[in-house]
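Input set for joint prediction.
Command: fold jointly, output tokens.
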Amino acid sequence: MINKVRINHGPVVCEQHADEVIAINLETGAYYSLKGAACRLWTLVEADAHVGDIIESFTAVHTGPADKIAAAVHEFLRQLEADQLIVPDSSVGKPVATAVAESAATPVPQFELQKYSDMEELLRLDPVHDVGGGGWPEAATAGGE
Amino acid sequence: MIIAVKNGEQFVAAAVDSVLSQLENDDELLVVDDGSTDATRSRLPQADMRLRLLTGAGLGPSAARNLGLAAAQGDFIAMLDHDDLWPAGRHRALRDLLVTSPQFDAAAGWIEVQVEPGGQLAHCGAFQGRHGLSLPWSCLYRRRLIERVGGFDESLRYGEDSDYHARLCEAGMRLGLSPACSLIYRRHAGNATNRMPDHGNRALALVRRRLDRHPPQPDAAPKSVN
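tokens >
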């Protein structure tokens, strides 16, 4: 079981607006919307939280059985990893404050990963070649500065 | 056919020539000068009746193109940046595709990327040899499609081409692919795209606008985990 994950930065770009995270996998061209509990989980991953702390954060605000909450968190992390949005991470991680929020409406967090592939052509245009100022292909053979 | 330009004296003549060499007598080329202070106007052919010069309000490329779209009278509409070129045979290939295939709203050929001295290939290398559908300048559109979608978003400083393509797709554009090369995309030191945000940030801006404007259906029922 994974103990620590991180956002797959590089292939994945993301931004958050209010209670929604938009993430794009530039290698596949798929983009994703994460709201509610999914957004909160993503935020915790970005904050370098250990999986155990992520589970604890949801356990603090959901009233359901702890094992079901943990299972939901692990399953959602599995989905995110399957879409290459997150990857296992060997770093120690950082402690995160337990979510101080009003109790959640559901006993167990409802994670939703909405995936869209309607703009693949536009979004994955050049991820492999998105290099720095030297241009593409490699700077030594490129069209010059 | 529409070319919007501002201070394009270096490249505009070649762009205009590449278009006029392919247009019929009853075709038109609208050049929208958006406030040039260099020798752009003097670089334009002065006696070709197919060319009409319009004056933009200095509001940027999207507004200038929209001025051209509003003035365009043909059944087919194409756009070109002043610093790019039409390869030989481009217009006939795309027009013939639309004439023989009424089911298509637009036609697109593939793109050749040409790096000029001082130019950077950068992210544009991915266009080479591809049908770069997100580049409107590689396409030929039926008027009915453009009328359905409207003009470019004049609030965008970058990515207005990708945004326009996204809106065309949202409108149900059916695009036919031609085996012809339809655009010579020139990379030079003065490209506006040299100063653009990186691809990731541009992609995020594009997606944000897409979701705000007309959220599509997710690929499948949202995967709900509880």
